[in-house]
Amino acid sequence: MNEQKVQLLDQNTANQIAAGEVVEKPASVVKELVENSLDAGADNIEVTIFGGGTEYIRVVDNGSGMSEENAKLAVLRHATSKIRVAEDLLHLNTLGFRGEALPSIASVSNFQLLTRPVTEEFATSIKIEGGNQAECSATGGHTGTTIIVENLFFNVPARRKFLRTVQTESRYISELITKLALSRPDVRFKLVSNDKEVLSTPGNGDLVDTVKALYGKNVSEELLTVDFADSEVKVRGFIGKPTLLKGTRQWQTLLVNGRIITNRMIAKAIDHAYQSQIPKSGFPFAVLNITVDTESIDVNVHPQKSEIKFSDDSTVYKAMYKALTDALTRPMSAKPQDLTLLDDSELQVFKSAEAVVAATEPSIVVETPKVPETELPALKTTETNISTAKAEVYSAYKSQQQSVWKEPEYTYRPPKTEPVYTISETRDVFDKQDNIASNIIDFTDTDSGVDTIWPLGQIDRTFIVAQSDDSLFLVDQHAAHERILYDKLVASHNDIPAQQMLIPLYIDVTAQDVNLIEEHREEFLRLGVDIEAAGESMLRVSSLPSDIKADDAEDFVREITQMLSELRTINPSDLRQNILHMTACKAAIKAGEVLNMRQMRQLIIDLCNTEHPFTCPHGRPCMVEINSAELYKMFKRT
What we know:
- It is a single chain.
- Helix 9 packs parallel to helix 10, helix 15 crosses helix 19 and helix 18 (about 555-565) packs antiparallel against helix 19 (about 570-585).
- About 30% of the residues are buried.
- This protein has 21 helices and 24 strands.
- An eight-stranded mixed β-sheet has the order 5-4-3-6-2-1-7-8, with helices on one face. A five-stranded mixed β-sheet has the order 9-10-15-12-13, with helices on both faces.
- It is an alpha+beta fold.
- The model is unreliable at about 330-385, about 395-410, about 415-425 and about 435-450 (pLDDT under 50).
């Protein structure tokens, strides 16, 4: 076999090979060009594309621009202003540094560069077609840089063949600009595709305003602030409430020292922080910037600089997890407040005429004749017909207001058959149902101070309707109780109370289930579950968590065996979490069970004092808030 001759590749061939790594698709071109604009200090960047970026890409910025000398060097391979020596890679503060982007792009497209610094009278124009000799000339132009890329991959048909549809490539570019805009809220971004504006950000430096411009008002109002710092790592940004989910990680923008990156370890930290709050198929919203020492990361490990390596993954993971759990816990905790509550005796449906006037017309100050107390009708609802009392109150109210309001021309006709109750009487009606619901929840003292939300009633024996001063709340009673029980079980660590069964329960299962149970018996014992083999295909259950009712015992054990058979790998942490989920779910009150007012109030108090009152352990919502602004909007009163 003849030995092949080794030879140097020409510059254009080398650039096309480099383009295979740097320029994967049109979005890669946009990324490199926009990052150059940011490095040049631009605060206004406009991107225009046609045909998903394969036909036409234009990036216009108002950055520092380049002189003719620098512009000619910029289109040469490995020419850069970002670093001087290899040691500079340890202290990078710019997004680009290799000097490969422009020559690589120019080698696979029709490329035009127009740039002018503020100190120059004329702009410099450079044109390159498919990597051929550059044409340079002086021309007019604004301060900053404009780069136009046409007919991408026209001379590399194999690469062009593997591009996606126009719509998909356009979406890639839109997603990229979105992340870049989130990384720099102080820069105004604008994306135009096929003459239609796709997105635009204000560039005022406010990240919330940027999120609102990109994702809408509903998302921006569901954000939780993340602000964590220790001696080595800072984490700042926003995450979404557990109810704000998407089917992919596309809503997650991760930055390290301002650079957009993807990192499995950081993604795992987000998943673990939201564990037991969201469904397994959901991914929360996140815009997070991690700041670390530049010497502790390596950004030169990926051709497109989209991945980095940390010198100490464990430190970053712990900081991320702590930052997110703090953010998720802080706004959800209900703190006891010092409130002055009216006694039930004062919460009457009918009050004195003076009280009615004061309550109904608080903003009008009028000097009216005061009716002596002796002239007001005595309102004793237990002795006087309620309809007559109501008519007398109305009459007294009219006599006080006749000097201000014109007397209405109608005759009041009190209702004949509809009963009217005081608040106390209403509660008494609910209390009569105690014998139905007394075994549902163990209640503690309701005077905990958490009285900002109080119940109004039950819908379909499943949902609790409650209110605060300015919001309406709908609570799923099963999901709410499940969250309460789960948090209590988690807080108990390995001291989960167990109940010894008077008569052991024997359950027929498969031999494989028996083996799985035996393998993890020690973990089950620590969780209050005493299960052991009683034959080749039978289990004996001697004790269960005290919250599990006897009627649910067999279903509970069968769910355990099913869970063990479905898990590919079983570790103690996952096993514990699954058992706690199942225990809380089985022990919680069910839909269709009647609750009285006292029980509903206690349930709401306990829910508000959990760390995550808006979602159950499976990630489903357990409390929905509708504020007064939304109510006004529903009734078109805005």
